[in-house]
Amino acid sequence: MPDQNNSVIKPSGNPFDSMMSRFDMAARLLNLDDQLYNVLKTPVKQVIVALPVTMDNGQIQVFEGYRVIHNNQLGPAKGGIRYSMDVHLDEVKALAAWMTWKCAVSNIPFGGGKGGIKCDPRSMSKGELERLTRQYVRALSEVFGPEKDIPAPDMGTGPQEMAWFMDQYSKLVGYSSPAVVTGKPLVLGGSKGRVEATGRGVMVSARSAMLKMGLNPFKCTCAVQGFGNVGSISAKLLEQQGLKVLAISDVTGGYYNENGINISEAIAYRDSNGGTLAGFPNTTSITNEELLTLDVDVLVPAAMEDQITASNAAQIKAKLIVEGANGPTSADADDILHNKGIVVVPDILANAGGVTVSYFEWVQNRLGYYWTEERVNRRADRNMKEAFENVYNTAQQHNVSLRIAAYIVAIDKVANTTRLRGGF
Ligand code: NAD
Q: How confident is the model over 292-302, as pLDDT tens digits?
């Protein structure tokens, strides 16, 4: 059991500690006993593998691959694979745990997992990335499986990597196994609506929160940090809901227009500009840091971890923060935002649209029957709304933030399942 006298969240740059401090707070409110606390906090499996790959210059380079299964009480582990130089075990452990809580909070029968390879995908050729992906599947073939652990894309990976993954796994088992991985291209058994699913869930949870707060979307402004899959689609769908998007950003910086940015134009510009917003016209340049403290109603951090911290939380002016990214708010900023009355729809709820449609993809692969986009969206929207209501009611009941309420819902569910399954 966490220290009962310690109600203060400790500041931390370590994503696993950041996850654990929220976990501890929810565990205290649930009176979780010591033994279950230890079971739930400890990842079930942590694997690090060496991945020797022949590079285009003929040299063999050894990469490090990770896969962590945090928990598999609710079902097979589910979680993306990240290709980045920043990948390290604590990050993968935190992301795996967030997947456990995300699936539990959204009522998806999956546990939590995450993987990654320490590499710089932008500096590698397509052939090198294919060989690296196939090595990763071979090295971890015992871990993966449609009933065991089902990866998906994350930062630095996309449908092409998932296609190689599916093909390599199928070759190893001797038959076509689309359900081993989600986020595949449509022709290989991907689901309609998957590409937009996370951004769509961000929009649906933003709308649900705005309804509770009495905010009229047609009178609201918004800023979105990150303009990749999650950020650009969230921005587009929020704009369609009537919000004026005053600022967007990516790794090249922030772009501001007080009259609003046309998001379709921004997406078209990015796609014709090597994937970044660099030089986006009719906007003023701002920094990513400045974007976070703009005078807007709704803020969507959709880039990376630890963007809102104790050092800038007090300057945030938005009334509502909807976390598209995983872990964009560090634990030491939670109280500052809560005390300012800022409503935060936490990552494990707000960005669960992606894993929801990943689950639908797995269901369709196993059925061998494919749904229309309209059916996928309708079911995903319903799931997001129900999850939001459940978390909102829990927050009212315990008088806590939506974040702690989401952890309470998730931990309670996994703890109850673990008690019922027993077997210790
Ligand atoms: P992406 O690679 O498509 O886009 C990332 C965006 O962030 C890009 O615009 C990039 O330029 C920008 N960025 C990178 N580093 C930055 C920095 N230092 N400052 C500002 N911007 C920076 O990734 P994505 O899939 O959109 O994922 C974004 C976040 O959402 C991640 O935290 C990811 O784990 C999370 N997430 C993604 C999904 C999904 O379905 N893609 C689902 C749930 C959560």
A: 999 999 999 99
